Amino acid sequence: MARMGQPQVFDTVIVGGGMAGSIVAARLAEAGDRSICVIEAGPPDRHPWIHIPAGYIKLVYNPAYTFPFKTEPGPGIAGRQIATVQGRVLGGSSSINGFNYNRGQRADYDTWAQRGNRGWGYAEEYAISRHVVDALVLPIFEGVRPILTLKVVARALLG
Question: What is the pTM of this model?
Answer without folding.
Answer: 0.57
